[in-house]
Amino acid sequence: MNENQLEQIKNHPSFKQMQSKKSKLGIAFTVLTLVVYFSYILMIGTNPQLFATPVAAGRVTTIGIYWGVFVIFFSIIITAIYVYKANGEFDDLTKKVISDLNLTQEKPPVVSNAH
């Protein structure tokens, strides 16, 4: 790929759209993840008795267990959403750029060994 092709890709509207959407999604997911993680850590540090509180009277499962499980599932769900978007919408935009700029890989010519 030469410099001219790279410039064409960078200036293509679909590439710019994809770049913008990926940035916004990445920033949003990063902020959400940090809020969830830090709220967990801050709550443990500032109010540990809350985490030790049983969910219901006579139960041994505490609020801290549920909050910890939530953090794990939240991370899995956020990752799954990003992968879904990347393999769907972002791949479609990538294919559009490749198609519009005719950047499909050329196959090398077949060389025959027959004399």
How would you describe this structure to a colleague?
The chain has 115 residues and is mainly alpha-helical. The chain has one domain (14-98). The chain contains four helices and no strands. It has helices spanning 3-11, 13-46, 48-52, 63-100. Helix 2 packs antiparallel against helix 4 (63-100). It is elongated and about 80 Å long. The model has no long low-confidence stretch (mean pLDDT 87).
Largest sheet: none
Distance between the termini: 34 Å
What is the helix tally?
4
Q: Estimate what percentage of residues fall within beta strands.
A: under 5%
Helix proportion: over 70%
**C-alpha-based Rg, rounded:** 25 Å
How confident overall, as mean pLDDT? 87
**Spatial shape:** elongated
Overall structural domain count:
1
Q: Unreliable stretches, pLDDT < 50, 5 or more residues?
A: none
Helices and strands, in order, run as HHHH
Q: How many DSSP E strands?
A: 0
Can you give keywords for this protein?
115 residues; mainly alpha; elongated; membrane; transmembrane
Task: Annotate the secondary structure layout.
Layout: H1 3-11, H2 13-46, H3 48-52, H4 63-100
Question: Short description, anyone?
Answer:
By secondary structure, the protein is mainly alpha-helical.
